Amino acid sequence: MFLKEEINWGKVHTDIEEVLGEDFWDEMKNVLPKRGPNMDVYTSKDKLVIFAEFPGIAVENYVKIKKENQTLILYGQIPYQYPFPHTQLQVSERFSGIFKRSVVIPFPFSLQNIVTFNHNGLVEIHISKE
């Protein structure tokens, strides 16, 4: 059995920039578009906290949470919010559309042990150990 080595994505990002140039990531946005909200995950000995960005939307209307085994899944749809056609955007970095983001939770949990807070589009999801 081989152990999977953790990937240092920060180093990968830096190495790619050194080889392909600083503009590489800006050019890749059109090829590999963003597929959901930005997230940060914090763990401590008794809980896990997810911070997810949903600026400008009523999260309770567009975002759902479900559990599959040891994975918490955020899914839903971020509506297009501009008063003009998407084709008129010259730069499009804010995600809109259907998304699904998954986080593996390193301990047993239930949906009843989840508490959420919404701070102007920054959603905190607190998952306590059972």
Notes on the protein architecture:
The two termini are 31 Å apart. The chain has helices at 9-20, 24-28, 59-62; strands at residues 39-43, 47-53, 63-68, 71-78, 97-104, 114-119, 122-128. The mean pLDDT is 84. It contains 3 helices and 7 strands. 16% of the residues lie in helices and 36% in strands. By secondary structure, it is α+β, with helices and mostly antiparallel strands. The chain has 2 domains: 7-33, no CATH class; 37-128, Immunoglobulin-like, CATH 2.60.40. It is flat, with a radius of gyration of 18 Å. It has a 4-stranded antiparallel sheet with strand order 1-2-7-6, with no helix packed on it. It has a 3-stranded antiparallel sheet with strand order 3-4-5.
Question: Which descriptors would you attach to this protein?
Answer:
3 helices; 7 strands; 2 domains; flat; four-stranded antiparallel beta sheet; alpha+beta; single chain
CATH hierarchy: architecture of the largest domain: Sandwich
CATH topology of the largest domain: Immunoglobulin-like
Indicate the radius of gyration in whole angstroms: 18 Å
Q: If strands are numbered along the chain, what order do they take across the biggest sheet?
A: 1-2-7-6
Main sheet properties: 4 strands, antiparallel
Mean pLDDT: 84
Quick one: how many beta strands? Answer: 7
Number of domains: 2
Output the helix-strand order.
Answer: HHEEHEEEEE
Shape label: flat
Low-confidence stretches: none
For the record, give the distance between the C-alpha atoms at the N and C termini, rounded to a whole number.
31 Å
CATH C-level label of the largest domain: Mainly Beta
Helix percentage range: 10-25%
Supply the helix-strand structural class: alpha+beta
- Please give the count of helices: 3
